[in-house]
Amino acid sequence: MVSSIAVLSGFVSVTLALNKAALPLPVTEIFQFPRGSYIEALQFRPNGKLLGNLLAPEASIYQFDVVEKSARKVVSIPSVNGLYGLTEGLPDQYYAAGGNFSLRASTRAAGSFGIFHVNLTSFDHAGLATVEEVSHFANATPNGLWTLNAKTGIILAADATNGVVYRVNINTGVNEITVSDPLMKPPANASTYPSPNGIAVHDGYLYFTNTGAGTFGRVPITAAGVQTGPAQLVAVTAGGNPGGDDWTFDAAGNVFLGENPNNWVSVLPKGSKTPVIIAGGPNSTAVLGPNTVRFGVSKLDRSRGGLYIGTSGGLPQYRSGNFTNGGGVYRIDTAVLDL
What is the pLDDT of residues 187-239, one digit of tens each? Predict the structure, then answer.
């Protein structure tokens, strides 16, 4: 595997075509959990409902109706105490990463993590959700997930502890490291933060955040998910070190980032190396601990650029044990940015 670092030259500084007059964007609350509830990942279903993984206080998945602003527990996974990433394979079949860990002590139980198949194909008409562990890891912390090939059952999993990416065959359970690069590794001064974290594949590159380093990068891969060249630095996150959690592209190629452990959401306009804070901020409580962002799928959300945000309520409270805010789901409308 290639292990040298390169600086990305294909991205150049540009004059942002960003409507800064609209900032900060108003934040609409969709659902608020009690204190101690930590939303880690979001994923829209084909029916327009929104799924959310809970990292705390238990390993469970909730469904949110973003119109009625309500929530319903879909399933709990009692063999682990929290869930990280979430991705859809075949329609209404999902894969969640989970394991045992302590947010307060910033420790993870080696050998406790796995990928769980959550089947919701019978949920709407029969209320049935089935769960099965399909891959187990001996010494890894799968966090961000990405479906590489739904038909063949191949997903990628970012190992947030060891700075590598696994290719996982959910049919056989086999997992193997196919991407490893220094740009993904956790820095010594921020080793408790996921490195790498959120991942996505676009145009032959695996893009990733390194929360501990506060960077956003990419690495070339084959269609089979195997690294073919050195990772490249795309940008430093708006929060610097640490900063940058889960994220998503919009249709135009702009990158929207949840900036946990900071309290803001940023956008990296296509062609730019400088993220801009668009919601929340250093002195704001509008979005406390935004871990994950996903664009809505309804006609209305497509027209207004509705971006949904899952939060922890603020990471420091999980380290101190003094809980003041619960995590929640929120929305910002990004079309006014004119990107």
Answer: 887 768 899 999 999 999 999 999 999 999 999 999 999 999 999 999 999 98
Q: CA quadruple 62, 174, 139, 188: dihedral positive or negative? A: negative
Sequence letter at residue 46:
P
Angle at 290 between CA 299 and CA 136, to 5 degrees: 95
Cα separation, 319 vs 314, whole angstroms: 10
Half-sphere exposure of 155 (CA within 13 A, CB side): 32
List, as one string, the DSSP characters of 281-337: -TT--SSSSEEEEEE--SHHHHHHTEEEEEE-S-THHHHHS----EEEEEEEE-GGG
Residues 6+ apart with CB under 8 A from 88: 43, 45, 94, 95, 147, 150
Look up residue 241 and give its amino acid.
Answer: N
CA dihedral sign, ordered 289, 248, 170, 222: negative
Q: How many residues in total does the chain contain? A: 339
**What's the N-to-C CA distance of the chain in angstroms?**
37
Give this prediction's pTM.
0.94
C-alpha dist (Å) from residue 326 to 38, 312, 315? 7, 7, 10
Q: According to DSSP H, which parts of 52-169 are helical?
A: 123-126
Exposure letters 253-268 (e unless 16+ CB within 10 A, then b): ebbbbbbbbbbbbbbb
- Pull the structure tokens for residue 183: 């740009």
Over residues 84-131, the pLDDT tens digits come to 999 999 999 999 999 999 999 889 999 999 999 999 999 999 999 999
What is the distance between the alpha carbons of residues 169 and 24, in angstroms, rounded to a whole number?
42
How many C-beta atoms surround the C-beta of residue 300 within 10 A? 11
Q: Which residues of 230-249 are buried (b: 16+ CB within 10 A; e: fewer)?
A: bbbbbbbbbbebbbbbbbbe
Place of tokens 């940015």: 337
Angle of CA points 237, 2, 11, to nearest 5°: 35
CB 175 within 8 A of CB 168: yes
DSSP string for residues in 183-211: GGSPPGGGTTS-SS--EEEETTEEEEEET
